């Protein structure tokens, strides 16, 4: 490990020695079935860097809160359950809505007023799945254009298959479908 660090850091390897030592002492070793620090002291090592990062994150984090009557956007999952024909779903909308907040349920959950198209979806959502609606018309996506199942996953179906080809490689064949 030391040799690799000397090669990576060159002449300044000695300045990085405390980080190398920290990394080694907190890495899992199969021979002792624990990290050396944990085996010696019986607890995990807490780093000063870790605490500094945590406090920095906590200072910058602001809690999301909505009032009854606010409009919010609802996060949907474009990566799961999507039938993709060559696309990765990058252009699919991440949020749908806006929806009106009906009530605050507990500390971090909100009940929304959902339209008839989403009647199979439970109307209570965690705050992490919501985003404040800013009165911006391009942001609002009508539900008529997209199909969402009861788990808030996109369901895409091809409109028409225009052409089919089979690409022949050395070891395999890849079907290509133009939709």
Automatic annotation (TrEMBL):
Statement: the UniProt record of this protein carries the keyword Protease: no
Keyword set, alphabetical order: Nucleotidyltransferase, RNA-directed DNA polymerase, Transferase
Official protein name in the record: Reverse transcriptase domain-containing protein
Domain named Tf2-1-like SH3-like: residues: 69-133
Origin superkingdom: Eukaryota
Transmembrane regions listed in the UniProt entry: none
InterPro entries (alphabetical): RNaseH_sf, SH3_Tf2-1
Keyword Nucleotidyltransferase: yes
Organism: Tanacetum coccineum
Family matches, as Pfam families: SH3_Tf2-1
Gene Ontology terms for molecular function: RNA-directed DNA polymerase activity
């Amino acid at each position: 490990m030391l040799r690799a660090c000397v090669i990576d850091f060159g002449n300044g390897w000695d300045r990085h020695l405390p980080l190398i030592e920290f990394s080694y002492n907190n890495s899992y070793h199969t021979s002792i079935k624990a990290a050396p620090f944990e085996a010696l002291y019986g607890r995990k090592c807490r780093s000063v860097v870790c605490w500094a990062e945590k406090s920095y994150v906590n200072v910058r984090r602001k809690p999301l809160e909505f009032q009854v009557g606010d409009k919010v956007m609802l996060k949907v999952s474009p990566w799961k359950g999507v039938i993709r024909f060559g696309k990765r779903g990058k252009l699919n909308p991440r949020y749908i809505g806006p929806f009106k907040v009906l009530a605050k349920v507990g500390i971090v959950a909100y009940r929304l007023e959902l339209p008839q198209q989403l009647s199979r979806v439970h109307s209570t959502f965690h705050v992490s799945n919501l985003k404040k609606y800013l009165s911006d018309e391009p942001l609002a996506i009508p539900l008529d254009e997209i199909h969402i199942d009861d788990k808030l996953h996109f369901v895409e179906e091809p409109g028409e298959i225009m052409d089919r080809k089979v690409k022949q490689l050395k070891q395999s064949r890849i079907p290509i479908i133009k939709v």
